[in-house]
């Protein structure tokens, strides 16, 4: 291959090496994101954050964030639930509930959340593989763990409801509305994460999220129909009332 001629200053043309081949971009890689950087990025710039994390999923930090979010939510939810067992206007703010119950409630809630996290991640990873996605299990586990961050919004809301002693229909409407908003927010984060981890389009990532629950719902309907048919065969309807 013909070698390139140096410029008078002894430097090869910009962007080319001695053989005239464009030089690769040798800019240093971005440093790994820290704890607060990840939280800020997921809240305010999720697409760019997941794109940056896709190459090197921060599995350890993701587990830590997931644990802290669910621990705070579980304890606050238990505190609000205990408050609802007291009569309206009770002077206690729920801080004197039995101390042994706190670690039990926290442990039970965390175990359930961990199991749900692993099962959901496994289903998403399997579905993405069926749709020709190429990604790592560590990547999807990190995405689904970080998608739990919007649940932090419920913690100050629950605290405010606790302090104001809001009950009844108002409590139901507020918690249901915010819970639905948090759920949709989390699903959007998972879709964005799937797009970066598996290099999916938005439609394929959305299909990956919706396909598992659709299959479960369809299976449930089929089982319900079969169960109803079995009951009908055991108790056939007669044309005559006698």
How many E strands? 0
Mean pLDDT: 81
Classify the beta-strand content into a percent band: under 5%
Distance between the termini: 101 Å
Largest sheet data:
none
Rg calc: 27 Å
Specify the number of helices.
8
Total count of domains? 1
* Structural class designation: mainly alpha
Q: What best-fitting shape do the alpha-carbon axes yield?
A: flat
Observed structural traits:
242 residues; mainly alpha; flat; 0% strand
List the helices and strands and how they pair.
Elements: H1 35-44, H2 46-55, H3 59-84, H4 101-130, H5 137-146, H6 154-164, H7 168-197, H8 202-234
Helix pairs in contact: 1-2, 2-7, 3-4, 3-5, 3-6, 4-5, 4-8, 5-7, 6-7, 7-8
Q: Could you please describe the fold and organization of this structure?
A:
The protein has 242 residues and is mainly alpha-helical. It has one domain. The chain is 66% helix and 0% strand. It contains eight helices and no strands. The N and C termini lie far apart (101 Å).
Provide a brief overview of the structure.
The chain is mainly alpha-helical and 242 residues long.
